[in-house]
Amino acid sequence: MSTGIWILIVVIAAILGAVAGFFIARKTMENYLKKNPPISEEMMRSMMTSMGQKPSQKKLNQMMQQMKAQSNKK
């Protein structure tokens, strides 16, 4: 086989590897963020307290449910 064909094979393999790597990394990050949400209930409580609101458990649960519903839409 000539050198030109080998170069073409290497370039195609690199492109396919980059595309596959992108989609694998994206799926991995989506799964990680589903299992480990970036904002926890304790963080939400401290945020509301710092804004001058007194967070009740009911309000915290509602906000967490809204966040989960919003993340499931995407």
Overall pLDDT level? 89
Number of helices: 3
Radius of gyration, rounded?
Answer: 23 Å
Q: How many beta-strand elements?
A: 0
Portion in beta strands: under 5%
- Given helix and strand content, the structural type is mainly alpha
Q: pLDDT below 50 for ≥5 consecutive residues: which ranges?
A: none
Estimate the global geometry from the Cα principal axes.
rod-shaped
What does this structure look like?
By secondary structure, the chain is mainly α. It has helices spanning 3-35, 41-50, 57-73. The chain folds into 2 domains: 1-36; 39-74. The model has no long low-confidence stretch (mean pLDDT 89).
Give the SSE map.
Layout: H1 3-35, H2 41-50, H3 57-73
